[in-house]
Amino acid sequence: MRPEWVVPISGVITALKTIVQAFSAPGDTVLIRPPVYAHFHDDVLINGRFAVSAPPDRGRLSL
Predict the structure, then answer these.
(1) What is the C-alpha separation between 39 and 21, in angstroms, rounded?
(2) 61 occurs within a structural domain
């Protein structure tokens, strides 16, 4: 990891918004694995992405 890759962020919600914007584009689908804070789902939608939930199935990711 390079020091210039590290970005100080004020909290988890701000970090989530930054990650969604940096690694996806409007119209993309973002996978969310509940249970999560409501903000995780809402912020994906607010940023123009589609949220898809994939709840765990006996400890494994099930799509």
Answers:
(1) 15
(2) no
Q: Which residue has the tokens 């119209």?
A: 27
Q: Is the dihedral of CA 42, 56, 24, 26 positive or negative?
A: negative
Domain count along the chain:
1
pLDDT tens profile 17-54: 999 999 999 999 999 988 888 888 999 999 999 999 88
Q: Please state, in angstroms and rounded to a whole number, the distance separating the CA atoms of residues 61 and 55.
A: 7
φ, ψ of residue 4 in degrees (nearest 5):
-70, -10
Is residue 42 domain-resident? yes
pTM above 0.90, yes or no: no
Spatial distance between the Cα atoms of 27 and 50, rounded to a whole number of angstroms: 7
